[in-house]
Amino acid sequence: MFKSRRSGLVRRLWRSRLVTESDGQAGLEEELASTAHAFLKRLKERCLDALLKAVEARGGINSECVMVPSSELRLGAHHVSPQSLLCKVYRWSDMPLSARLKTLSHCQSFGAEDSAKVCCNPYHYSRLCGPESPPPPYSLSRSEEHKPLVHLPKQTLIPPPLSFSSDTGTSLGSSTSGGHRSHWCSVAYWEQRTRVGRLYPAYEPSLNIFYDLPQGTGLCLGNNSNSSSSVQQIRSKIGYGIVLSQEPDGAWLYNRSLHPVFVHSPTLDPPSARGLSVRRVMPGFSLKVFDYERSSWMASHGVKPESQEGPWDPHSVRISFAKGWGPCYSRQFITSCPCWLEVLLNNHR
């Protein structure tokens, strides 16, 4: 009976993969398919159970780690790690097996260098944006309890657009005196030039921001019925949304939605930039949106972008959902984007 159940799990997982050998040039090569199937058959039943739940949920739940020996698998004349193999089979069929993956901060493998075991849950990894994204110096981080689900209130607040004089992350009580933990950032949600709801402080190392998430905890953007139909249409595309995480080298963004997000940050601008640099983060990718070391250097040298007009906060990251802005887009300013975030980083780290 137990053998039969285990075989059934393997069959269900095999049917859930992205492509089959008959898919032509977009499919898995025969050797890859053979290696993946043999690997699944070697997994213990508990690992198969956890892997199947993660694959069927497609990243919509906080799935368990699937720990396996960290030895590489032979694939013809090459070798491949278990996590790379399953990421290609279940998430990105176009991903080169040599592609560098980033471990998400809630995974047991995050920061665990030279460990005897590694997590092969494909939804505990992301791809890295662009060649300019440096490899992150991972460090071990323990997951903390989740914050309760918070919905934004329906009423709309309309402060002066892009005013940083009062609603900055550092003005909301960064002191840790009296035993209170300091927030590492505050998030403001905007719909075009209108700010919706209050500033949301993040105390945990990672924060989910989403429209609809099966097991969502964090900041929910799906509860404002006062929006225009055009804004509601774009807002519904946020889906599983993004994860913001505080890591030793900076703040990272992971796009877990089905649509791209667009980012501008003072530390993403190349040296002597004369135009606004807006980076696109595709679904399943991660980007270091704020670099602590570079920010400190910029502050010590009094660096301010030449192209910046109006109020400027050196610790602010702006993120728009589904629609980009800047010189390469029809929308020149982020206040023309239907749904966007202002992430105000607390510089008292």
UniProtKB/TrEMBL annotation:
Limits of the MH1 domain? 8-134
- InterPro entries (UniProt xref): Dwarfin, MAD_homology1_Dwarfin-type, MAD_homology_MH1, SMAD-like_dom_sf, SMAD_dom_Dwarfin-type, SMAD_FHA_dom_sf, SMAD_MH1_sf
Question: Keywords assigned by UniProt?
Answer: Cytoplasm, Metal-binding, Nucleus, Transcription, Transcription regulation, Zinc
Q: Does the keyword Transcription apply?
A: yes
List each copy of the MH2 domain by range: 184-349
Q: Which family, according to UniProt?
A: Belongs to the dwarfin/SMAD family.
This protein is called Mothers against decapentaplegic homolog
Supply the source organism for this entry.
Labrus bergylta
